[in-house]
Amino acid sequence: MSSHPASVxxxxxxxxxxxxxxxxxxxxAAAIAVIRISGPHARAVLEALVGRVPAPRHASLRDIGxxxxxxxxxxxxxxxxxxxxxxxxELQVHGSRxxxxxVVEAATEPVGGHGRIEALQTxxxxxxxxxxxxx
Length: 135
Hints:
Elements: E1 8-11, E2 20-23, E3 32-38, H1 42-50, E4 60-64, E5 70-77, E6 88-94, H2 97-107, E7 117-123, E8 126-132
Antiparallel strand pairs: 1-7, 2-3, 3-6, 4-5, 5-6, 7-8
């Protein structure tokens, strides 16, 4: 494990549900961070985080998280017209490590009994895994 502080959070592709949640912006301190949620349950995850899903490809300012973690722009890209070709959401939040980590953790909580999502915390090129499982 590197002695560098965690700067990027990424999410694995578990075989049971095929979801991914990952920062799409660069590592390190920044004013804004972009977090992408992609896969068959992206809409359910987005609804759990922000409530009503915005119109496709329209940015909407929303409170993110329950309770609110941050307020940011939320975009919805239904399949197949998305960056990944799957249903995908994009969250544009404040770029502090704490906010990014909290949003990724909230997005990786089990939704509606859909199983597990594996979170991988990457530290300057090296990482260790954290797993979140549905009861």
